[in-house]
Amino acid sequence: MSAAVDVTDLTRRFGDFVAVDHVTLKVEQGRIFGFLGPNGSGKSTTIRMLTGLLQPSEGRGQVLGLDVMTEFEAIKKRIGYMSQKFSLYDDLSVEENIDFFSGLYGVERHHRSERKKWVLEMAGLTQMRSHITASLAGGWKQRLALGCAVLHEPPILFLDEPTSGVDPMARRLFWDLIAHMSHNGTTVFVTTHYMDEAEYCDELALIYRGRLIARGEPSKLKRESLSRQIVELRPQRPYAALEALESESWIHDVALFGDTLHVTVEDAEQVMPRLETFFQKQGFGEVPSELVMPTMEDVFVGLIEAEG
Q1: CB–CB of 9/58 below 8 Å?
Q2: Residue 287 per-residue DSSP state
């Protein structure tokens, strides 16, 4: 079985600026592939090349067996694509948007009623089918956009930061829909800068300044990408504790996670008693601490620091 996406040295330049720098990756069919990175890292540029919307400057590869350099029009017809910006028509009803995109994607007429029913049920919009799209909350709009993107039952779905600006509950429900599609055989290629969403992916690629800096299953990346250990601290004054620790040379890195601190150290067993003494001397009193598994954010920050 051939890969859904298979590209080598994919590169895109805008004048002297290299937005995507010799990216090589392969995505197997039926997988949820997460493409993570901060804003401006090259995620959207990469996905636009893979979807036939932007011509690569160099490199080679295929999407669904079609050449990204020469068969980009054919690629557009075979894929589903949902961009960062909400792309449906606000002045049409939910049902009218589905009807419009059924025609746009060439869904056969005798099949359209069945596909419309499926989208409405999948997105939970059956009771809102006559509502004007502009009146929907952000999460419902995104679910409608997802449904419209898969009306023609594409074998691969490209989602470019689909949950940006959506509340956490709506994001989780959206990912439930993605998981359902993947379980039914659809390949999902999704870009995001939300590190918690990485946990929902079968495989990840981390991109920074246009270059891939790591790739693998989430659990593997967390085990192997950080050579150091993470100690979680719960001081009563986290901001003050953060400032105090930042100047200490025996601390590799410290970051705020809600009301806790994640301290990156070489050897937690040796450092944890030292942390206890440090906080006592600094007037913080007793600060609970424990060794924890690094989050994807810990991993990504560590990898970026390693890049210099």
Answers
A1: yes
A2: -
- The CATH number of domain 5-222, selected from 3.30.470.20, 3.30.470.30, 1.10.3720.10, 3.40.50.300: 3.40.50.300
pTM: 0.82
pLDDT over 70 at 86, yes or no: no
The token duo for 192 is: 């995001």
Counting Cα atoms < 13 Å in the Cβ hemisphere of 307 gives 16
Each residue of 166-223: pLDDT tens digit? 778 878 888 888 898 899 899 999 988 788 888 899 999 999 999 999 899 988 888 7
**What is the distance between the alpha carbons of residues 213 and 38, in angstroms, rounded to a whole number?**
13
Give the start-to-end residue ranges of the domains of the chain: 5-222, 225-307
The whole-number average pLDDT for the span 225-252 is 87
Task: Report d(CA 79, CA 204) in Å as an integer.
Answer: 20
Fold of 225-307: Alpha-Beta Plaits (3.30.70)
Q: Give the closest residue to 214 by CA, choosing from 29, 89, 39, 41.
A: 41
